[in-house]
From TrEMBL:
It comes from the Bacteria. Residues 57-124 form the ChsH2 C-terminal OB-fold domain. This is Benzoylsuccinyl-CoA thiolase. Residues 20-54 form the ChsH2 rubredoxin-like zinc ribbon domain. Signal peptide: none annotated.
Amino acid sequence: MPAASSQPAIDGWFATDDAGATHLIGGKCTQCATFVFPPRENNCPNPACASDTLDLVPLSRRGKVWSYTENRYLPPSPYPKTDPFEPFAIAAVELADEGLIVLGKVVEGTLAADLKVGMEMELTTMTLYTDDEGVERTTHAWRIA
């Protein structure tokens, strides 16, 4: 049986370079240099800025845990469910260069007890679910650096 193909669960949130390194894609205001994630190309999030133009830019691959929690319940429909359900950690990571805080799942096998505020994290990807056509849908994720 051929290997399942892999595609992002949400297009445009991350990219992988030729060396296989994944980075998030963010918006950066052309006027005040404020960053935003998820990416967008308009509407600067800085209330002191009136710019409506943001460039899409690669974001830092590393950062520090700002906060974290653990999900211990099945998600409601229409979110994909795993059987059996396995608890998973979620981390808010402050990106090293931008100071932007990005929320994401933590790789399987890492739970809240393994995390600490200030801990170094790095970006990776993981399978979020497999769709009805057998395509693995991937998302950005954090792992301990």
